[in-house]
Design brief:
CATH class: Mainly Beta
CATH superfamily: TonB-dependent receptor, beta-barrel domain
Number of domains: 1
Distance between the termini: 19 Å
Strand content: over 45%
Number of strands: 24
Order of helices and strands: EEEEEEHEEEEEEHEEEEEEEEEEEE
CATH topology: Maltoporin, Chain A
Helix content: under 10%
Strand order of the largest sheet: 1-14-15-16-17-18-19-20-21-22-23-24
Structural class: mainly beta
Shape: globular
Length: 419
């Protein structure tokens, strides 16, 4: 289908909550927990409704390996980025490599961090497919995260050989409720998050959410530091029981310093008594002010759902724009990277059940425009500025994708289904 896809030691947290009881909706029940029968009977499992296969179904009956995690579970576990999903997803490996997250599910993934190479695990935000550089700033004010193991090429396209990770944001509620959470910890950690629901009318509700997270670096020179702010404004329109439209705009900005592997001790060529390492004589290029990371991601989209008799239609338009500025070192060598990407996508999907047969079909369109620059410094100058950065690679790529997809599930018996 479409292209693309430290723990804080000894932290102390304090939370302040000011809200009315907020009702939960079915898709938010993303945990499978045993419950006790009020009459003292045997414990049963709660019904967990998932949509990872682009149909609404009970998790226990879905013919796929799906892990569903609610937003409250993520918050309780202290998960603030996609790397933290490893706590919940078996056989998953999510590691940060510069401005991207390399994702592997059951050993299937990609470690080629270039904008012109498709991922092997698809990321989707409210149904909108994301590029590998647009996954930062996803996990705040989340309703649930659903991870489906691959291959999932039929429903998610060629970027889902390893599976798909679907992030669903919390929807506006029809009552005036809000919450604020404050956290603090060592390394000057400060974390603030909050949301507010505003019912405008019987048919319109609005929700605003914000998240700010910062801490000093874990490494020498202040490297591996966090400084990010994220926000989202969404509106839910429900003209009747058969139709709903969710419109949202989300943005995130990360200005922390990345983790850097450097030589220790550093070689200082200005010291004539210092024995040079093997190879060329290098100056000392490691300047903490040079190491930087800026990641901007903006997502605009909508989810329109309409039920017409037994037919259910879903339309998901989306626009994703991300800007990356990344400066680090590879050994003694400065390595700046700049990337800009703009993506437009549209998906129209149809679902219907005929007694024992459930059908899904749809069409998909995506246009992606990428510009990328990579430099590689030669730190051989004896005095400041020490480095002379030369371009090592430039890329400009425009890609358009079209797809038609369909899937059917036939229930032969209550225990046997054919897909």
């Amino acid at each position: 289908m479409g292209s693309r896809g430290l723990n804080c030691l000894g932290s102390v947290a304090a939370a302040a909550m000011a809200s009315l009881a907020v009702p939960t909706w079915a898709a938010e029940q993303a945990s499978v927990l045993p419950t006790t029968n009020p009459g003292g009977g045997q414990a049963t499992l709660e019904e967990v409704v998932v949509t990872a296969r682009k149909v609404t179904e009970d998790l226990q009956e879905a013919p796929a390996s799906i892990v569903a995690v609610s937003g409250s579970q993520l918050q309780a576990a202290g998960v603030v980025d996609v790397q933290g999903l490893e706590k919940f997803v078996p056989s998953a490996n999510l590691r940060s490599e510069g401005p991207v997250v390399e994702t592997f599910i059951r050993g299937v993934g990609s470690n080629i961090d270039s904008a012109n190479v498709d991922e092997a695990v698809s990321y989707n935000y409210n149904g909108i497919v994301l590029s590998r550089f647009a996954t930062a700033g996803l996990l705040f004010d989340v309703a649930n995260v659903q991870v489906i193991a691959g291959p999932q090429g039929t429903l998610y396209g060629g970027t889902a050989a390893g599976g798909a990770i679907n992030v669903t944001s919390a929807r506006p509620k029809d009552d005036a409720a809000g919450a604020i959470t404050l956290e603090g910890g060592n390394y000057a950690r400060a974390h603030f998050s909050g949301f507010q629901d505003i019912p405008v009318s019987d048919m319109l509700s609005v929700r605003g959410a914000i998240d700010y997270d910062r801490r000093d670096g874990y490494e020498t020179y202040g490297f591996d530091a966090q400084d990010s702010i994220r926000g989202r404004l969404s509106a839910l329109i429900t003209p009747n029981d058969s139709a709903s439209v969710l419109v949202f705009a989300s943005g995130s900005y990360d200005d922390g310093k990345p983790a850097v592997a450097i030589n220790n001790p550093l070689y200082d060529s200005s010291n004539p008594w210092k024995v040079a390492p093997a190879g060329p004589t290098y100056a000392n290029p490691v300047d903490p002010n040079y190491v930087q990371r800026t990641i901007e991601t903006y997502v605009f989209g909508a989810n329109a759902d309409i039920a017409m008799g037994d037919n259910h239609f879903t339309y998901i338009p989306g626009f994703v724009h991300n800007i990356i500025g990344y400066q680090t070192y590879i050994g003694y060598f400065p390595h700046p990277v700049k990337e800009s990407e703009a993506q437009v996508s549209q998906e129209l999907r149809w679902n219907r059940r005929f007694d024992a047969l459930a059908l899904s079909a749809g069409v998909f369109y995506l246009h992606d425009s990428v510009g990328m620059y990579g430099g590689f410094g030669a730190p051989i100058l004896p005095k400041p500025p020490y480095i002379a950065v030369t371009p090592s690679g430039q890329l400009r790529q425009d890609e358009t994708s079209y797809a038609v997809f369909g899937q059917g599930v036939y229930s032969v018996t209550d225990k046997l289904r054919l897909t």
